[in-house]
Amino acid sequence: MGENGFEVGSEVVIMTVHDVAEYLRLSEAKVYKMANEGHVPALRMGKSWRFKRELIDEWIRRETELALHDSK
User: What angle (nearest 5°) sits at the alpha carbon of residue 26, between those of residues 9 and 47?
Assistant: First the structure.
């Protein structure tokens, strides 16, 4: 098991809402809201949400680039 989430092999890390909240330093309620509204890449599995860390990292890069572009 990695620092955050469940590590499969050496590349793929699947994270829970709790993991993502800690990783992004947000509340779990905020992560649930963002997932429900489609603002963060997530997969609904029954009543649970799962997040691929690689997709979260890509999302952060995109959002950062957009914020920097919009501030110009």
Answer: 65
Specify the pTM: 0.80
- Say how far apart CA 59 and CA 66 lie, in whole Å: 11
Q: Is 27 within 8 Å of 33 (Cβ atoms)?
A: no
Does residue 58 carry a pLDDT above 70? yes
- Domains in the chain, CATH or no CATH each: 6-70 (1.10.10)
Query: Following DSSP, what letter does each residue of 19-38 receive, concatenated?
Result: HHHHHHT--HHHHHHHHHTT
Looking at residue 1, its pLDDT comes to 41
